[in-house]
Design goal:
single chain; alpha/beta; Rossmann fold; Alpha-Beta Plaits; 2 domains; six-stranded mixed beta sheet; four-stranded antiparallel beta sheet; binds adenosine-5'-triphosphate
Length: 315
């Protein structure tokens, strides 16, 4: 099932074209990563999806139904973790949760249960009576998440939820996102931290200047930019002419050896892996063999590369 379908979305702010015919589809059960530099259009896209911002043209459907600003029944199935922390600093953790829970019409025992569950989820159970102003930045971000999941949304949209926090809170947030997804929530996760998207997202769209540059699983994106295979072979013992032997194979570009490990860079189209395996196994027993892929950061830089236009670049 398509949870969100965005078709040819166009959004202008006066002279700025923030979304330029943008299309994407989020399927049920995905952690859908939207990666892009500052000013790429991520927040604008999210606000349009949520029905918080009118757009110039295009179509948005959520759970197969057209989204518009008045669709309370659709909105009640969506949670938003906004980029800016939205909490009452003079109220305690528990009071904030009670307030946000009441906005979702949660009351009595159900509200109490959900608050306990959400606090446990973000590991803040022992902070419930602390005023928000006395929490660390990371704790505030975690409470922001707890407030957005009280109504157990089917779709959770997280807009850069880990900006400016410590490593411990970041880890807790990433783990809680994965856990929430395992329990059935579809998640849209925007970030410009590439390694976070790489770790948690099952599908990724890289956007810039209001357009989708590429979309796919991490593996698909890696394949798109990688012309070469990086093959790491561990052997029982290195034999004297292994480098020359491998280098004589068509398509092999580089061979490095260290201890009992051989790292081979070979053109995907030219080199035949069988020839490489044969050449190595003639001289020694192969203990293990592994194909390494480029990191998502390499993919991102290759695709967005010089194309990056961040806020203020043209000023
Ligand atoms: N209210 C607004 N009025 C005018 N221009 C805006 C407004 N909001 C965003 N923009 C512009 O639209 C473009 C997309 O901005 P948006 O905030 O959606 O990007 P983003 O990818 O979320 O960036 P960031 O990571 O910095 O939040 C930018 O050029 C931005 O300057």
């Amino acid at each position: 099932m398509d949870v969100v379908k965005v078709e040819n979305l166009v959004k202008r702010y006066k002279d700025t074209l923030a979304l330029d015919n943008l299309s994407l589809t989020v399927k049920e059960g995905e952690i859908f990563g939207i990666l892009g530099p500052n000013g790429a259009g991520k927040t604008t896209l999210i606000n349009c999806i949520l029905g918080l911002l009118p757009y110039d043209s295009g179509k948005i459907t959520i759970f197969d139904r057209a989204m518009d600003i008045n669709r309370a029944n659709l909105k009640s199935q969506i949670g938003l973790v906004p980029q800016d922390i939205a909490l009452y600093s003079n109220l305690t953790v528990q009071e904030n949760l009670t307030f946000f829970g009441s906005l979702y019409n949660l009351k009595g025992n159900i509200l109490k249960e959900r608050i306990d569950w959400a606090l446990e989820f973000v590991m803040l159970s022992d902070m419930r009576n602390v005023r928000v102003k006395n929490l660390s930045g990371g704790m505030k971000r975690r409470l922001n998440i707890a407030c957005s999941i009280l109504h157990k949304p089917r779709l959770l949209i997280m807009d850069e939820p880990t900006v400016g926090i410590d490593a411990n809170s970041r880890r807790l947030i990433l783990d809680s996102v994965k856990k929430l997804n395992k329990e059935g929530t579809t998640i849209i996760y925007t970030s410009h931290y590439i390694e976070e998207v790489e770790e948690i997202c099952s599908f990724i769209s890289i956007i810039n200047r209001g357009r989708v540059l590429v979309s796919g699983t991490k593996e698909k994106l890696q394949d798109m930019v990688s012309e070469d295979n990086l093959i790491v072979i561990k052997v029982e013992e290195l034999f004297w002419n292994v480098v020359d032997k491998l280098k004589s194979i068509r398509g092999v570009k580089e061979v490095l050896t260290k201890d009992r490990q051989i790292t081979i860079t070979a053109g995907k189209r030219e080199a035949d892996i069988k020839d490489i395996v044969n050449a190595v196994s003639e001289g020694s027993r192969i203990i293990s063999m592994e194909f390494k892929k480029p990191t998502l950061e390499m993919v991102y830089l290759t695709i967005v590369g010089n194309n990056i236009k961040e806020e203020g670049d043209e000023k």
